[in-house]
Structures are given as structure tokens and as C-alpha cells.
Specification:
With about 475 residues, the chain is of the alpha/beta class. The protein has three domains: about 35 residues; about 200 residues, P-loop containing nucleotide triphosphate hydrolases (Rossmann fold, 3-Layer(aba) Sandwich); about 190 residues, Ribosomal Protein S5, domain 2 (2-Layer Sandwich), CATH 3.30.230.10. The protein is about 25% helix and about 25% strand. The protein is built from twelve helices and 21 strands. The strands form four sheets. It has a nine-stranded mixed beta sheet with strand order 6-5-7-8-4-9-10-11-12, sandwiched between helices. It has a seven-stranded mixed beta sheet with strand order 15-16-14-13-17-20-21. Helix 10 crosses helix 12. The structure holds thymidine-5'-diphosphate and magnesium ion (MG).
Length: about 475
């Protein structure tokens, strides 16, 4: 006898870190290997599949060629924020702002909204975390109460929020703080779960696109640094910004991880003061503020963050390996794989003895470097540390190091040197110019005019020799 088919509501389990869907519960997500991240979700997928498909309408196909105006921008007037956004908020676009709790997301947005309100833009700040009184108190502390017309609401109910936003005219920017507190009654799950976060974001994004205001969603990050909730949120929005920083340090970095309307390598630097976030327009001075000149194992790297040069101090400490086993390599602010490679190159091509040493590397100030151009500064710190001879405190370094020990060219030499000159550095160690026929079309470098003595080097052995004072200053390339 054939069994009667009973349609059960389908239960499945969604990983709240990566969004992978599993049929059965498990302690570990098979996709991202995180533990205890699966959450049960009930979704009547059978309902969707049993609906008849409506007859579609024909969509209009357009030619690729043709004029589209650049998106208009809503500038907050906070230059560090506007630059990371690619020039300001874009109407009908959605920005996700992630960061650790307490890092200053709410503070930044409240300050930005007040600046917009001063420009007579209509801005709405909706908090699901704080009561109106708390927000007012914060605004008072920030000194932005008297002249601001920011409209506030404390609500977690997405349906109410959407009804309000749809009925209010001329809104420029809406902030939702935070998406994890938002809640749709139609779903069974509690706020913060994958299905709630996803559905609430979807509804809010849809409203922003329909009504034409810029939407900012605040998102909490997990201790691993990923945005809590499914990664799918990152795909739904136009820009993902992270607000980072060490709570032990006063400065905060705003970084774009994705931006459909701008570059992703820009950073904004702020410092947290007792009156809110202050813009830092000269980050190099801030990062180098506590540098002690004559210590072996430190070198200044002339780096680039997006379009902006930033000088950073690289610090290295070598200690003879205690006991048996593999030596320790502890890295803060740089890539540990890159350090391992550099140590091997210095040992094999530069003749330094480093394999028996524990190596500790730190980028002072807490910034993370992603550029390969930092290789030369790290190598200089390592050489200085191993020889015990401090690097020249008036010298900066930049250049990539290849596996054969060659020093390779990096972009934006002029900007790096100008920044170094601005901060009072008088010497730079940089890659030797490659004189291949393919490069002859490039205009001659006018780097000598910047007012910095240039040591151009071609191989890691040149750097070792330079540090041993065996090389004469070679002023030109
Ligand atoms: P907040 O913006 O609430 O962080 P988030 O929204 O990311 O959770 O920032 C809270 C922290 O910032 C808190 O620890 C106190 C500090 N803070 C200041 O140092 N100065 C200030 O003027 C303000 C408003 C906050
Ligand atoms: Mg907050």
C-alpha cells in the first residue's frame, strides 16, 4: 500500500557566519568549519514552489553605450568619511558599517548626521539599541545639540520603520543602528538570527531604493572580525565599511571592504576624544608620534593607504630561541607568511643568521599593512636588530623584495617621498630604477627635487652592505 505523502514544513539549519544551509544540525559548519554556528530556521520553501508562476512582462534591454550621469553625492563634510565613501553618500544606495561594539560606530554616524542636518538635509537616526534619552545625552557630550535637526526614533520593528519612512518626504539619509536588533513580526525567529537579519535588511534596502534615500546599516562584528549574520548581507549592500581600532589606542580607522561607488583602498583616520571623533588629517605624524630615534630594530616605512601616503614605524625584536623546537614568529599588523619569506631571503641571499631566533614584529600604532612595499623596511629593521646598529632616524624605506633578493619597484614613489620630506625625513632607501627598453617611455623621475637624499639599491645585499656602512651614498639612480 502506498504511503500517503504528508508535506512537513521544511526545517533547515543556517550557519550564522557564512550563511551555508544544512539539512541536519551539526556542531561544526561544513562550509566554514566554525563551531556552534548553526541555527535552526523554518522556511516553508514548499509554499514558494507550489505557487503558480505568473506570466512575466518583457523587460527593456538597453545598449551598453550611452551617457549615464555620475551619481550625485551627499557630502557629510567629514572629509575622512566622505573619502572612504568615494565622495559622500549616494542617494538610494546602502552602506553597511561594521565594527566591534564600543569602537565608535554610533558616535561617528551621529556626528555625520548632525553635519548633514546643518546643511539642511533631512536625516533620520533610528536606534534599536539605545533609548532617545541616551542618544540625546551622547549628542550633548559631543556638543552637537544646539544646532542640529537630526530626527530620532527608537524602534526595532521594521514594519513600523518602513511605514514611517515611506510617509515622510525628502529624506536624504537614514541610519539603522543596528541591523541585528531589527525585527520582522512575520518571521518566527528572534532578532539577530540569520533569517531576521537577512529579511530585515532586504525590506529596508528595498525601501531605500524605492524612496531614494541613502541607507546606513550598522552591523556588529564577531570576535573573529566578520560581520555577524550571513555574509549574504555584504552582497546585498553597495558598500561595506569597517570601523577598526584598538580600544587601547585612541585612533580609529575607517576602511572600505567593498564599494560600488568608489575605491576600496581608502582609509579614514579618526581619533576618539572626550568630545567624540576628531578627524586626523596628518596620520603619519600621529603614527610616528611616540617613536624613539635610536633603537636597533626599528625602521620607518613610507607606505600608501589608497591615495594617501602614510608613514609607519616597523619594530622588530629578536630573541635567541629558548629550548628545543620551532622558533617563534609573532606578527602584529603584517602578514606572517610574508615575514617567513623575508627571513628566508635574508638568510639565503643576504647571509644573515636568523633561523635560530625568535622574531617579534610589530607595526607601531596598530595599523595593518597589506602592501608588499613594506618588505624593505621590515628587512632594514631585521638587519638593524641582528647587527644591533640602529637605522638612521631620518631615513625612510620602501620597496618590495623578491625571492632572489632583488629589490622591486613599487608605485607612487613621489608621493611617499613627499610625505617623508613633509615630516622632516632627509634620506630614503628605495628600489633602483629598472632601465629596460619597455620602461623608457616613462618620464624621467624628478625625485631628487623633493629634497631627500636617495639611496637606490637593487639587491638585498646592498641593504646589508649599506647597514654595514660599506656603500657610499649614491645620490642618483
Ligand atoms: P559608540 O559609538 O557607542 O560605539 P559603537 O556604536 O560602535 O558600539 O562608542 C562608545 C565608546 O566611545 C565608549 O566606549 C565611549 C567612547 N566615547 C568617547 O570616548 N568619547 C565620546 O565623546 C563618545 C561619545 C564616546
Ligand atoms: Mg552603537
Amino acid at each position: 500500500m502506498a504511503k500517503k505523502q504528508v508535506k512537513k514544513p521544511s526545517h533547515h539549519y543556517v550557519c550564522h557566519v557564512c550563511g551555508a544551509v544544512h539539512a541536519k544540525w551539526a556542531g561544526q559548519c561544513e562550509a566554514c568549519h566554525e563551531w556552534n554556528t548553526l541555527q535552526e530556521t523554518k522556511e516553508s520553501s514548499s509554499v514558494a514552489s507550489s505557487l503558480p508562476i505568473r506570466a512575466g512582462r518583457q523587460i527593456c534591454l538597453e545598449k551598453l553605450e550611452g551617457e549615464s550621469p555620475l551619481p550625485p553625492r551627499i557630502c557629510s563634510g567629514i572629509a575622512e568619511l566622505d573619502r572612504v565613501l568615494g565622495g559622500g553618500f549616494v542617494p538610494a544606495s546602502v552602506v553597511l558599517l561594521g565594527g566591534d561594539p564600543g569602537i565608535g560606530k554610533s558616535t561617528l554616524l551621529l556626528q555625520a548626521m548632525s553635519q548633514l542636518a546643518i546643511q539642511k538635509k533631512r536625516v533620520i537616526y533610528i536606534s534599536g539599541e539605545e533609548a532617545i534619552e541616551q542618544i540625546r545625552l551622547r549628542a550633548k557630550r559631543l556638543g552637537i545639540v544646539s544646532h542640529t535637526q537630526v530626527e530620532l526614533a527608537a524602534s526595532m520593528n521594521v514594519a513600523d520603520i518602513i511605514a514611517t519612512l515611506e510617509s515622510e518626504p525628502n529624506i536624504s539619509v537614514v541610519v539603522i543602528d543596528s541591523i541585528q536588533t531589527m525585527w520582522l513580526e512575520t518571521l518566527e525567529s528572534t532578532p539577530g538570527t540569520v533569517s531576521q537579519v537577512r529579511a530585515c535588511a532586504f525590506e529596508l534596502i528595498h525601501t531605500a531604493k524605492r524612496c531614494g534615500f541613502a541607507l546606513v546599516l550598522v552591523g556588529h562584528v564577531t570576535k573573529e572580525g566578520a560581520l555577524a549574520g550571513p555574509r549574504v548581507l555584504e552582497h546585498m549592500v553597495d558598500a561595506v565599511l569597517y570601523f577598526e581600532g584598538d580600544r587601547g589606542h585612541q585612533f580609529r580607522i575607517l576602511r572600505a571592504a567593498k564599494n560600488r561607488y568608489g575605491a576600496t583602498d581608502e582609509i579614514g583616520v579618526f581619533s576618539m576624544t572626550d568630545r567624540g571623533l576628531a578627524e586626523v588629517d596628518n596620520p603619519s605624524a600621529l603614527f610616528l608620534a611616540e617613536r624613539r630615534g635610536n633603537i636597533a630594530g626599528s625602521a620607518v616605512f613610507a607606505g600608501m593607504e589608497g591615495t594617501r601616503p602614510v608613514l609607519l614605524e616597523i619594530q622588530v625584536l629578536l630573541a635567541s630561541k629558548g629550548g628545543e623546537g620551532v622558533p617563534r614568529r609573532a606578527v602584529v599588523g603584517w602578514d606572517s607568511g610574508r615575514l617567513a619569506m623575508l627571513l628566508a631571503v635574508l638568510e639565503t641571499r643576504g647571509g644573515l643568521k636568523l633561523s635560530g631566533m625568535d622574531v617579534y614584529l610589530n607595526v607601531a600604532g596598530g595599523l595593518k599593512i597589506t602592501e608588499p612595499a613594506a618588505d624593505l623596511a621590515v628587512a632594514a629593521s631585521l638587519i638593524s636588530s641582528v647587527t644591533g646598529v640602529p637605522t638612521n632616524p631620518n631615513e625612510v624605506y620602501f620597496g618590495e623584495i623578491g625571492l632572489s633578493g632583488e629589490i622591486r619597484q613599487v608605485p607612487q614613489e613621489e608621493l611617499r617621498l613627499k610625505e617623508a620630506a613633509k615630516l622632516g625625513f632627509s634620506k630614503a632607501v628605495l628600489p633602483r630604477k629598472v632601465t629596460k627598453t619597455t620602461r623608457t617611455n616613462t618620464p624621467p623621475r624628478a625625485l631628487e627635487d623633493i629634497g631627500i637624499i636617495l639611496h637606490t639599491i637593487g639587491h638585498i645585499t646592498d641593504l646589508v652592505a649599506l647597514k654595514n656602512n660599506k656603500t657610499e651614498n649614491n645620490k642618483t639612480a
